[in-house]
Amino acid sequence: MTFMLFWQRTLLIIGATAVLAACSTGPLITRTQDLSESADAPYKNILVVALFASFDTRKGLEKAMVTQLSERGIDAVASTSMMKTTTPVTRQTFLAMVKKINADAVLITQLVNIDSHAVLTDASPEATYNVRPTYYFNVWNVELTEYVEPPFLGVEGTVVLATQIYSVLSREAVWAIESKSDFVQDSGVPRPYTFFLDEARAITAHMSRDGLIVQ
Side by side, which strands form the sheet with 45-51? Predict the structure, then answer.
């Protein structure tokens, strides 16, 4: 692949991402557990935990969640900010974090389901023309160069995440939702950070609406 083709494809991906972002309506939220009457909400100091197979994916969502909660005046800490990739993902690890930051709640988000399939997309050929006059009247020399890129593989599907709030005081889940998001992306390209921001905005908005946090 030439340098020109590389940038043509890069611009195509960026453009597609912009269109998708503009058309996105955000995750579809379903409440699966109403706020418990015994909950000691609102919460002001929250440990944010994302449970995925990839450490980078966990870090991406936790970072977005902390950003959204902090903007609402909540003291939020990402679990990955206190971990290494080799740190055991166990209950004891998170309990130690709760004690360290004196959290009053733990927000846990994990993958429930992902349904995806591959889509083969034909790349649009690009052509350039080089037109030069000749010694003959109204006769031109035209050179056509066509750049044809092989089809590329895309992935589209649906992701369902489950989010729960655990009260540190009662050690019980006091609220839960599920969020469903559709996505389209080029195969091999990491999921854009906008995906995490959309999820974080939707989750924190419902937390605020249900009285788990106050701004």
Answer: 28-33, 172-186, 152-167, 105-121, 45-51, 75-78
